[in-house]
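chain below, 184 aa
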Amino acid sequence: MEKQQIIELIDANVNQVQTLIHERVQIWQTYVLFSGLWWFGVFLSIFPWILWIFLRDKHSTDRILYVGYFVIVISLVLDILGDQLGFWHYRFNVIPVLPTYFPWDITLMPVSVMFLIQIKPKTNLYLKAIFFALLTSYVAEPFITWLKIYEPQIWKFSYSVPIQFIIYLLAHYSSRRNKFKELT
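prediction:
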């Protein structure tokens, strides 16, 4: 296949995707924006951060935020991959053009991990990791599925357990790093 034919195929595909995104935004504006589940998503996007601001360990704010940003990046990447590969999809998005559920990736995952790392820091990290993995996989995911926000296609809740376990372990490991060189 010639370079020009490949370019035309890619451009045609991009045009189809843009048409579908435009249609998705229209559906969102008409049916989702300001609905109960949209407001629920807005609440989930803001309230946990407010709670964290007041309840965080003020002496560890920078370290814990570092971990939170780390979890946000991992969550976003994995969520986008899962959505794009057709493992699941979301309805009632807070922001229509994002293929992820904003409250989950930007708020619930990182804030939960940040709180768990802060609370009882001497508790066995594997116990905390399994608690986090089971809570997110068997409580949070089924709950947002029940609300019809999250629709697993070929994904099972059990598949999330080892992933959430590893995310927590990596976050915990990141929270213990202290070899930052001072900027000069």
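The chain has a mean pLDDT of 95. The CA atoms of residues 88 and 153 lie 5 Å apart.
thats it, cya
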